Fold this protein.
Amino acid sequence: MEPGNNTQCSKFFLLGFSEDPELQPLIFGLFLSRYLIAVFGNLLIILVTISDSHLHTPMYFFLSNLSFVDICFTSTTIPKMLKNIQTQSKVITYEGYIIQVYFYIFFAGLDDFLLTVMAYDHFVTICRPLHYTVIMHPRLCALLVLVPWMMSAMNSLLQSLMVLKLTFCREVGIPHFLCELNQMVQLACSDTFLNGVVMCLASVLLDGGPFAGITYSYSKIVSSIRRISSTQGKFKAFSTCASHLSVVLLFYCTGLRVYLSSAATHSSHSSATTSVMYTVVTPMLNPFIYCLRNKDIKRALKRVCGIVGIKRPTVLGQMKCP
């Protein structure tokens, strides 16, 4: 890459993890299997929440939206990577790179917002149980989903438009498997100061804001649980948000690892390896977390699959308080 050449390039090269031909089938198989698990797992949650009337509640409405976003998130990057391995071509056009950056930022931001909305739902469930149906009415639930879509769309559009002002040298090779905004800005031949400012502000507002909301919600939840006298009551209250808390920890721990990895090292291969956790593993594990830790989801899966036993808990048994 020649520093003095500011000719706008028409394509990039996603170099992936390794250029060794012997490793390509292994990488292809690993990513294809994880992608299929993520898609079918999240699709199963969507179908279960739609088909089971017992799950037509705000919490599962938000969960189905999160599953849909996870499907879109993984589909933004992995199919292109699999195609490049299959065709032995690492090329992605300039327009294709911009489009992938847009949707990558869009769905990653939506994940963040929806986790915050779900944390608020759990906050109302545990801290304001008597007012839950009044607070979480259908109009508010729709608004809590619509606003994140609008904010994420505006953020990703702004970031993409800022990238359009940059110029790049010829034949830019990117040792990554996806189109990441930071990589693109770092490889630009023009001044990127304004891009850095916009990225920093967006990170503070659209990442720090949801994280603060989740932290506040769970601080109130923990405070309310501690005031419950019985051990069984505490366990029942905690189990209500255990699945969501697990997903939050997985999402933010992997996201923080990606950020620290890119900030602490100049090795793009290391950053690419770390990004796998954020873009592939997290959406893949979400369905397992909710299916294994959530009794309502497991019960709904049994109903859908037609393997429910003859003996079922009675309505009074389900409503029994600790």
User: Anything to note?
Assistant: The two ends are 67 Å apart (CA to CA).
